[in-house]
Amino acid sequence: MSATSVSKDAQLPPHGLNSQHNHWLERKIGELVAEDFRRAHVFSQFGIDFCCGGGKPLSIACERADIDPAKVVAALNAATLTGSKEDELNQLPLDQLIEYIESTHHQYVREKAPLLVEYSEKMVRAHGEHYAEIVPFAGWVRALVEDLMPHLMKEEKILFPAIRGLSQAEHIETCFGHIGNPINAMQHEHEEVGLILQKLHELTNDFTPPEHACTTWRVCYATLAEFEADLHQHIHLENNILFPKALGLAQ
Fold first, then answer.
1. How far apart are CA 20 and CA 94, in angstroms?
2. In 3-state terms, what secondary structure has residue 119?
3. Each residue's pLDDT tens digit, 10-48
4. Which tens digits make up the pLDDT trace of 123-146?
5. Is 3 within 8 Å of 41 (Cβ atoms)?
6. What does the alpha-carbon distance between residue 242 and residue 58 come to, in Å, rounded to a whole number?
7. What are the backbone dihedrals phi and psi of residue 57, each rounded to the nearest 5 degrees, phi first?
8. pTM for this structure?
9. Pick from 91, 109, 100, 98: nearest CA to 156
10. N or C: which end of the chain has fewer CB within 10 A?
């Protein structure tokens, strides 16, 4: 079942306005999305970062994004709360959630990242001399890919096996001490990816190709927008679902 379509102009219900506001606005974004993935769709509609920015209270996120919190709360109340594939992911045992992340999101990155590099480098060859933004754009695309590839390997070879061991009550020898250490490192790398994406947004007018853009240019921007959407879901699953549950097991 897909998320209920909501409008940014939706109004709050008249009853219980203040208490309802406080219930939502005091909560952290990551916790809200962890309870119901469809809230991620609402946050995306309003331009609120629910993955790397998941540790912020909703009130702070609205303030920083210059968004009327009443409209966000109305949209959250309107979102469907039961019955989706996303809910099922939240209920998976950790080893199965890891398998899903690897087979879905890690695989997606490995398939699409080389295409992004190829498209951006082709843009440089064809248009780099005439459009100043293309060369730095290609550099940031490469930086994104070069950050992500070793990141995936560290998760697959070091962190994820340790979390699997925790979930199955197995003792696994590690070189990093408490599970919180590699989790903190991965979260920091997620934040770095978020900063690179922010820079790419700035360079591309939010992945909007200019009127003179060639087909490769347009395909590259569209692929990058899709790539970012997948990364948001990917990072959300790790930051707001997998990692907190792993830390809970380690207590």
1. 32
2. helix
3. 333 433 445 556 788 989 988 888 777 678 778 877 888
4. 999 998 899 889 999 999 999 999
5. yes
6. 21
7. -65, 150
8. 0.70
9. 98
10. C
